[in-house]
Amino acid sequence: MAEEHPNAWSAEAIRRLRAGGTQSTPTPTPLRRLPLAAIPGIDVYLKDESAHPTGSMKYRLVRAMFGEAIASGAIRAGTPVVAATSGAVAVAGAHFARLLGLDFTAVVPAGTPADVLARVEGEGGGWQVAEQPPAAVQEEARAVAEQLGGHFLDHFTDAERATAGWGEPTVADEIFGQLRREQHPIPEWIVTGAGTGATSAAVGRHLRRHGRTTRLAVVDPENSAYFPAWASGCRDYATGMPSRIPGIGRPRVEPGFLPTVIDLMIPVPDVASIAALRWLRTAGIDAGPATGTNLWGTCHLVARMREAGVRGSVVTLIGDAAGPYLHTHLSPTWVEARGLDPAPYEADIERFVHTGEWQGGERPV
């Protein structure tokens, strides 16, 4: 019997990753139009990353990290994979580990919602509650990976580099490909948040690499270090406080955050993110809190364009779906318990959608 080539498993694993578990190349996620009848001449689009198999934009980043780890030899047949996360990265990590026949463990902070843990298990992964406080979960997960002889999937450090090197179409590549058939194929702005920093870096690099006139705006929730770091030029800025908007905002500046590719950062109050999330739901758009943050920043930019008499398009992202947040950010009880009152901000969005008048920028952050 012929001996199997030493790279056979890696080659098959990369093929599976690129095909997304199918026999064909994965199709782009949908680009959805957001109707704004009161603002003619400006088209707003939502790039729906919740359409990925694991329901979030983290699918794209985690796939690239698995691909880079396999290509570098860090992941081989039978290598256990460990991540420190209590959200969408854990679900995507379990998904790809199962696709490749690997064991996956998410090291999660105490208090991680049961539905998140159930989703990890549903994708074939395991989890364990960290013994350390949230700030030390990353190092604890790294230690677990070492004990298992496995690979630590460090999404805060590796996602940006892996996305840049993976070679697959980025979210920006897909946006411009899909806009070719639209009235304004070169958007004035692309709006995204920053968690690991990988998505904003991928978009910013694409704009410069292809000589686009499109500008990149990054929205940032309360407690996050990214906006003050960008505004001050201080790369080691830290707030020490966690973001209340899942998926975006960090208490420190992560290695993948590239401020030099960002044209504008917009700080967004958490209550405004929740108000925008609620409005999206009434408009029939299924999305999570980070999409609310994106929408608030998009309204701000569209209002600026309208005031300047600029026609064109703006694109933002649906990062994930509403399901995981029905008992948190979409629950009136949960919101009220945190002293938040979204009503005035919801009124701002309703007024903007129906009249084109924007007062959101006048509210304090």
Describe the 3D structure.
- This protein is of the alpha/beta class and 365 residues long.
- The protein folds into 2 domains: 17-52 and 166-360, Rossmann fold; 58-161, Rossmann fold (3-Layer(aba) Sandwich), CATH 3.40.50.1100.
- Helices cover 41% and strands 13% of the residues.
- It has helices at residues 8-19, 58-71, 88-99, 114-122, 137-148, 155-166, 171-179, 198-209, 226-232, 270-282, 289-308, 332-337, 343-355, and strands spanning 31-34, 42-48, 81-84, 104-108, 126-129, 151-152, 189-192, 215-220, 264-267, 312-318.
- The chain has a 6-stranded mixed beta sheet, with helices on both faces. A 4-stranded parallel beta sheet has the order 5-4-3-6, with helices on both faces.
- Helix 3 (88-99) links the parallel strand 3 and strand 4 (104-108).
- Helix 10 packs across helix 11.
- The chain is globular, with a radius of gyration of 20 Å.
- It starts with 7 loop residues before the first helix and ends in a 10-residue tail after the last helix.
- The model has no long low-confidence stretch (mean pLDDT 93).
